[in-house]
Amino acid sequence: MSKATDNLMWSIIANMNWTKLCNKPRAYDTIKIQFMREHGKATAKKLGDFVNARWKDLDKAFNVHINSGGAECVHYSGDDSYDDMMHHVIGMGKETFEAVMADMTKLDDIEPVESFSYAIPHTSDNFNDYKNLDSDTHVIHAKEAVLALAEIVDNANNIGHDEAMVIRELLSRFMAIIAGEFTEAFADITFEDDYDHFNNIHPEYRAMFANYLFDAKKFLEDK
User: Tell me: the pLDDT tens digits for 172-219?
Assistant: First the structure.
Protein backbone atom coordinates (compact mmCIF):
# COMPACT_ATOMS: atom_id res chain seq x y z
CA MET A 1 0.00 0.00 0.00
CA SER A 2 1.09 3.58 -0.61
CA LYS A 3 1.85 5.97 2.22
CA ALA A 4 -1.36 7.86 1.41
CA THR A 5 -3.37 4.63 1.69
CA ASP A 6 -1.62 3.74 4.94
CA ASN A 7 -2.50 7.14 6.37
CA LEU A 8 -6.10 6.68 5.26
CA MET A 9 -6.30 3.30 6.98
CA TRP A 10 -4.87 4.72 10.20
CA SER A 11 -7.40 7.55 9.99
CA ILE A 12 -10.24 5.04 9.60
CA ILE A 13 -8.96 3.03 12.56
CA ALA A 14 -8.82 6.20 14.67
CA ASN A 15 -12.44 6.97 13.74
CA MET A 16 -13.51 3.48 14.82
CA ASN A 17 -12.76 4.59 18.42
CA TRP A 18 -11.58 1.17 19.58
CA THR A 19 -9.58 2.59 22.49
CA LYS A 20 -12.62 4.45 23.85
CA LEU A 21 -15.27 1.80 23.19
CA CYS A 22 -13.49 -1.54 23.54
CA ASN A 23 -14.44 -2.20 27.17
CA LYS A 24 -18.16 -1.99 26.48
CA PRO A 25 -19.96 -5.35 26.05
CA ARG A 26 -19.44 -6.71 22.52
CA ALA A 27 -18.13 -3.33 21.38
CA TYR A 28 -16.70 -4.93 18.27
CA ASP A 29 -20.22 -5.56 16.95
CA THR A 30 -21.24 -1.92 17.45
CA ILE A 31 -18.04 -0.68 15.83
CA LYS A 32 -18.32 -3.06 12.90
CA ILE A 33 -21.92 -2.15 12.13
CA GLN A 34 -21.14 1.57 12.25
CA PHE A 35 -18.15 1.01 9.97
CA MET A 36 -20.32 -0.88 7.47
CA ARG A 37 -22.85 1.93 7.40
CA GLU A 38 -20.11 4.44 6.62
CA HIS A 39 -17.84 2.39 4.32
CA GLY A 40 -18.35 -0.08 1.51
CA LYS A 41 -16.93 -3.55 1.01
CA ALA A 42 -13.91 -2.32 -0.94
CA THR A 43 -12.77 -0.18 1.98
CA ALA A 44 -13.41 -3.03 4.41
CA LYS A 45 -11.27 -5.33 2.26
CA LYS A 46 -8.44 -2.76 2.21
CA LEU A 47 -8.71 -2.30 5.96
CA GLY A 48 -8.58 -6.05 6.55
CA ASP A 49 -5.48 -6.36 4.36
CA PHE A 50 -3.88 -3.41 6.13
CA VAL A 51 -4.54 -4.80 9.61
CA ASN A 52 -3.22 -8.22 8.60
CA ALA A 53 -0.03 -6.60 7.31
CA ARG A 54 0.45 -4.61 10.52
CA TRP A 55 -0.19 -7.76 12.57
CA LYS A 56 2.62 -9.49 10.67
CA ASP A 57 4.88 -6.48 11.34
CA LEU A 58 4.20 -6.77 15.06
CA ASP A 59 4.65 -10.52 15.07
CA LYS A 60 7.99 -10.25 13.27
CA ALA A 61 9.22 -7.54 15.62
CA PHE A 62 8.07 -9.51 18.65
CA ASN A 63 9.93 -12.64 17.51
CA VAL A 64 13.08 -10.58 17.00
CA HIS A 65 12.61 -9.25 20.54
CA ILE A 66 12.21 -12.75 22.01
CA ASN A 67 15.05 -14.26 19.99
CA SER A 68 17.38 -11.54 21.20
CA GLY A 69 16.66 -12.40 24.83
CA GLY A 70 13.73 -10.08 25.51
CA ALA A 71 11.04 -11.04 28.01
CA GLU A 72 7.60 -12.17 26.91
CA CYS A 73 4.63 -9.93 27.58
CA VAL A 74 2.85 -10.65 30.85
CA HIS A 75 -0.63 -10.07 29.42
CA TYR A 76 -1.03 -13.11 27.22
CA SER A 77 -0.87 -16.84 27.83
CA GLY A 78 -1.61 -18.49 24.48
CA ASP A 79 -2.22 -18.05 20.77
CA ASP A 80 -5.66 -16.46 21.19
CA SER A 81 -4.58 -13.85 23.70
CA TYR A 82 -1.42 -13.16 21.67
CA ASP A 83 -3.61 -12.50 18.65
CA ASP A 84 -5.91 -10.30 20.75
CA MET A 85 -2.91 -8.34 22.02
CA MET A 86 -1.52 -7.62 18.56
CA HIS A 87 -4.91 -6.64 17.19
CA HIS A 88 -5.54 -4.49 20.24
CA VAL A 89 -2.29 -2.59 19.60
CA ILE A 90 -3.39 -1.92 16.02
CA GLY A 91 -6.86 -0.87 17.16
CA MET A 92 -5.30 1.66 19.55
CA GLY A 93 -3.92 3.48 16.51
CA LYS A 94 -0.79 4.52 14.70
CA GLU A 95 0.98 6.16 17.63
CA THR A 96 0.64 3.10 19.87
CA PHE A 97 1.55 0.75 17.04
CA GLU A 98 4.74 2.65 16.23
CA ALA A 99 5.68 2.90 19.90
CA VAL A 100 5.35 -0.86 20.37
CA MET A 101 7.22 -1.58 17.15
CA ALA A 102 10.09 0.51 18.50
CA ASP A 103 10.00 -1.05 21.99
CA MET A 104 8.24 -4.37 22.58
CA THR A 105 8.46 -3.96 26.37
CA LYS A 106 5.63 -1.41 26.05
CA LEU A 107 3.30 -4.38 25.62
CA ASP A 108 3.53 -4.86 29.38
CA ASP A 109 1.69 -1.56 29.81
CA ILE A 110 -1.19 -2.63 27.58
CA GLU A 111 -4.14 -4.73 28.72
CA PRO A 112 -5.62 -6.33 25.57
CA VAL A 113 -9.35 -6.58 24.93
CA GLU A 114 -10.94 -9.23 22.72
CA SER A 115 -10.74 -8.41 19.83
CA PHE A 116 -10.28 -5.56 17.37
CA SER A 117 -10.16 -8.15 14.59
CA TYR A 118 -13.89 -8.84 15.16
CA ALA A 119 -14.68 -5.20 14.34
CA ILE A 120 -13.46 -5.60 10.76
CA PRO A 121 -16.19 -6.81 8.39
CA HIS A 122 -15.78 -10.02 6.42
CA THR A 123 -16.22 -9.46 2.68
CA SER A 124 -15.67 -12.85 1.06
CA ASP A 125 -18.35 -14.55 -1.04
CA ASN A 126 -18.77 -17.26 1.59
CA PHE A 127 -18.81 -14.91 4.58
CA ASN A 128 -20.03 -11.41 3.76
CA ASP A 129 -21.05 -9.30 6.74
CA TYR A 130 -22.58 -6.68 4.44
CA LYS A 131 -25.47 -9.01 3.66
CA ASN A 132 -26.60 -8.51 7.25
CA LEU A 133 -27.36 -4.86 6.55
CA ASP A 134 -30.27 -6.04 4.41
CA SER A 135 -33.35 -6.84 6.50
CA ASP A 136 -34.33 -9.49 3.93
CA THR A 137 -31.40 -11.61 5.12
CA HIS A 138 -32.87 -11.73 8.62
CA VAL A 139 -36.41 -12.32 7.35
CA ILE A 140 -35.12 -15.37 5.47
CA HIS A 141 -33.39 -16.60 8.62
CA ALA A 142 -36.55 -16.00 10.65
CA LYS A 143 -38.61 -18.07 8.21
CA GLU A 144 -36.04 -20.88 8.43
CA ALA A 145 -36.25 -20.71 12.22
CA VAL A 146 -40.06 -20.85 12.25
CA LEU A 147 -40.05 -23.93 10.01
CA ALA A 148 -37.41 -25.59 12.21
CA LEU A 149 -39.36 -24.84 15.38
CA ALA A 150 -42.53 -26.24 13.82
CA GLU A 151 -40.63 -29.40 12.89
CA ILE A 152 -39.40 -29.78 16.47
CA VAL A 153 -42.96 -29.56 17.74
CA ASP A 154 -44.32 -31.97 15.09
CA ASN A 155 -41.67 -34.60 15.77
CA ALA A 156 -41.42 -34.35 19.55
CA ASN A 157 -42.86 -37.13 21.67
CA ASN A 158 -42.71 -35.08 24.82
CA ILE A 159 -41.88 -31.39 25.19
CA GLY A 160 -41.41 -30.12 28.71
CA HIS A 161 -43.08 -26.97 29.93
CA ASP A 162 -39.92 -24.85 30.00
CA GLU A 163 -38.88 -25.87 26.50
CA ALA A 164 -42.40 -25.27 25.21
CA MET A 165 -42.39 -21.75 26.63
CA VAL A 166 -39.05 -20.96 24.98
CA ILE A 167 -40.30 -22.32 21.64
CA ARG A 168 -43.42 -20.19 21.98
CA GLU A 169 -41.35 -17.08 22.66
CA LEU A 170 -39.00 -17.78 19.77
CA LEU A 171 -41.92 -18.26 17.40
CA SER A 172 -43.39 -14.94 18.52
CA ARG A 173 -40.12 -13.08 18.06
CA PHE A 174 -39.31 -14.61 14.66
CA MET A 175 -42.83 -13.92 13.41
CA ALA A 176 -42.36 -10.29 14.47
CA ILE A 177 -39.15 -10.12 12.41
CA ILE A 178 -40.99 -11.54 9.40
CA ALA A 179 -43.69 -8.89 9.86
CA GLY A 180 -41.10 -6.12 10.14
CA GLU A 181 -42.07 -5.41 13.74
CA PHE A 182 -38.50 -5.13 14.99
CA THR A 183 -39.23 -3.30 18.24
CA GLU A 184 -41.52 -6.12 19.32
CA ALA A 185 -39.09 -8.79 18.10
CA PHE A 186 -36.25 -7.59 20.30
CA ALA A 187 -38.10 -6.19 23.30
CA ASP A 188 -36.60 -6.88 26.72
CA ILE A 189 -33.74 -9.15 25.61
CA THR A 190 -29.98 -8.69 25.69
CA PHE A 191 -27.22 -10.96 24.46
CA GLU A 192 -25.57 -11.06 27.87
CA ASP A 193 -28.73 -12.04 29.76
CA ASP A 194 -30.73 -14.07 27.25
CA TYR A 195 -28.48 -15.82 24.72
CA ASP A 196 -28.30 -19.00 26.81
CA HIS A 197 -32.07 -18.88 27.32
CA PHE A 198 -32.61 -19.34 23.57
CA ASN A 199 -29.63 -21.60 22.99
CA ASN A 200 -29.68 -25.37 22.37
CA ILE A 201 -33.43 -25.79 22.22
CA HIS A 202 -32.80 -28.92 20.20
CA PRO A 203 -29.44 -30.68 19.66
CA GLU A 204 -29.96 -30.87 15.89
CA TYR A 205 -30.13 -27.08 15.63
CA ARG A 206 -27.71 -26.22 18.43
CA ALA A 207 -27.32 -22.43 18.62
CA MET A 208 -29.15 -21.59 15.38
CA PHE A 209 -32.16 -19.94 17.00
CA ALA A 210 -30.15 -17.78 19.40
CA ASN A 211 -27.69 -16.80 16.66
CA TYR A 212 -30.41 -15.87 14.17
CA LEU A 213 -32.28 -13.85 16.77
CA PHE A 214 -29.33 -11.88 18.11
CA ASP A 215 -27.76 -11.36 14.67
CA ALA A 216 -31.03 -9.79 13.60
CA LYS A 217 -31.13 -7.70 16.76
CA LYS A 218 -27.64 -6.29 16.10
CA PHE A 219 -28.53 -5.07 12.62
CA LEU A 220 -32.24 -4.29 12.80
CA GLU A 221 -32.98 -2.99 16.30
CA ASP A 222 -32.58 0.67 15.42
CA LYS A 223 -34.37 0.50 12.07
Answer: 999 999 999 999 999 999 988 889 888 867 777 778 999 999 999 988
C-alpha distances in angstroms, 128 versus 41, 115, 134? 9, 19, 12
- Record the pTM: 0.78
Digit-coded pLDDT (tens) for 157-182: 777 888 889 999 999 999 999 999 99
Which long-range contacts (C-beta less than 8 Å, at least 24 apart) are formed by 149-156? 149/174, 149/201, 149/209, 152/201, 152/202, 152/205
Distance (Å, whole) CA 185 – CA 195: 14
Question: What confidence tens digit (pLDDT) does each residue in 4-22 have?
Answer: 888 999 999 999 999 999 9
Domain ranges of the chain: 3-124, 134-220
| Residue 171 contacts residue 133 (beta carbons within 8 Å) | no
What average pLDDT does this structure show over 130-151? 93
